[in-house]
Write a structure and sequence with these properties.
Blueprint: E1 2-7, H1 14-17, H2 20-27, E2 32-37, E3 50-51, E4 61-62, H3 64-75, E5 83-92, H4 95-101, E6 106-111, E7 116-117, H5 119-124, E8 128-131, H6 141-152, H7 164-167, E9 185-186, E10 189-190, H8 200-218, H9 230-238, E11 241-242, E12 245-246
Parallel strand pairs: 1-2, 1-6, 4-7, 5-6, 5-8
Antiparallel strand pairs: 3-4, 9-10, 11-12
Helix pairs in contact: 4-6
C-alpha cells in the first residue's frame, strides 16, 4: 500500500517510520510512505504557506495555493486516490475505518498547522476529514502517523501473527482479553490456571469471556454494535448486562 503525506514538517516522520513494525513493512515492500513538504510548492521567494484570516482573529491560516499545488503535482487533478484531511473537525477514526482503508492501494493524508485551513481546501480538494479524538493538537503529523500505523497493521504480512490484527481491541467490536507472560507467579500474583492448561478450547472460551467482561466494565456502549453470539449474550447476562441497561462488574484484571 502506498501512503502520500503532505506536511509542513516532513522531518518529524523519519524516526517513527524507521522503527519496529513499520520499518520492516517498508523494507519488505508491504507499504511505501512518501512525505511531501508543502512548502516546496509555495510560490514566491519566501515560500509563504500561511496568512492572517480575513475578518480578523487570532492565529494564521494555511493558504490554498501551496496545498493545491502540492497535491495536484503529486496526485494529479483530480487526485488518483482519496485525500484525507487530519482535523479535529473530522469524523472519529475507528478500527473499522482502519480495516476499510487498508483495502485501498493508495491513500493520501494532509496535515495542518497553525489555526487551520483555508475553507476552499476542505470544499474543493479533500475527499474526507478524520479526527483521532475530541481534542486539538499542534498539527496533523501525529494523527497521520496514527492512521499509517493503524491501517498498516491490517495489511497481510505486516504483523508476525497473521491473525494478530483481528485479535486487537476494537477489531471485533470488543476490547481485547488480558495477556500474561512469564513468570507464572510474580509477587504472589498468579497467571490464571486455564492459560497454563494447554487446552486451546478452554483458553479460547476464557479469552472470549474476559473480552466480554472487560468491554462491559470499560466500554459498555460498544456492546450495542458488537457481533454477539447466543453464548456471548448468555455470558453478558450472567455478568449483569441487559440491552436496556448495563450493570458493569468491577474489572480487576491487569492491562
Amino acid at each position: 500500500m502506498k501512503f502520500d503525506v503532505f506536511s509542513l514538517l516532513p522531518q518529524v516522520f523519519h524516526d517513527y517510520l524507521n522503527s519496529s513494525i513499520l520499518l520492516k513493512a517498508i523494507e519488505n515492500k508491504l507499504i511505501a510512505v512518501d512525505v511531501h513538504d508543502i512548502r516546496d510548492w509555495a510560490p514566491g521567494k519566501h515560500h509563504v504557506t500561511d496568512e492572517p484570516p480575513y475578518g480578523g482573529g487570532g492565529g494564521m491560516v494555511m493558504k490554498p495555493e501551496p496545498v493545491f499545488n502540492a497535491v495536484e503535482a503529486v496526485l494529479g487533478n483530480p487526485p488518483v486516490c482519496p485525500l484525507i484531511l487530519l482535523t479535529p473537525q473530522g469524523r472519529l477514526f475507528t478500527q473499522k475505518d482502519a480495516q476499510t482503508l487498508a483495502e485501498l492501494p493508495r491513500l493520501a493524508l494532509l496535515c495542518g498547522r497553525y489555526e487551520g485551513f483555508d475553507e476552499r481546501i476542505r470544499q474543493h480538494l479533500v475527499t474526507d476529514e478524520i479526527s483521532i479524538g475530541d481534542y486539538v493538537l499542534t498539527g496533523g503529523e501525529l494523527p497521520a502517523l496514527v492512521l499509517i500505523d493503524a491501517i498498516s497493521r491490517n495489511l497481510p504480512g505486516v504483523l508476525g501473527d497473521p491473525d494478530g490484527a483481528w485479535d486487537d481491541s476494537h477489531a471485533g467490536g470488543l476490547l481485547e482479553y488480558p495477556h500474561y507472560t512469564r513468570p507464572a507467579s510474580y509477587r504472589d500474583w498468579e497467571v490464571p490456571e486455564v492459560l497454563l492448561s494447554g487446552n486451546h478450547a478452554r483458553i479460547a472460551a476464557w479469552r472470549r469471556e474476559e473480552s466480554l467482561r472487560r468491554t462491559l466494565a470499560r466500554r459498555p456502549e460498544l456492546l450495542n454494535e458488537a457481533e454477539l453470539s447466543a453464548a456471548d449474550l448468555k455470558t453478558l447476562r450472567a455478568l449483569g448486562w441487559t440491552p436496556d441497561g448495563v450493570v458493569a462488574e468491577e474489572d480487576n484484571q491487569p492491562d
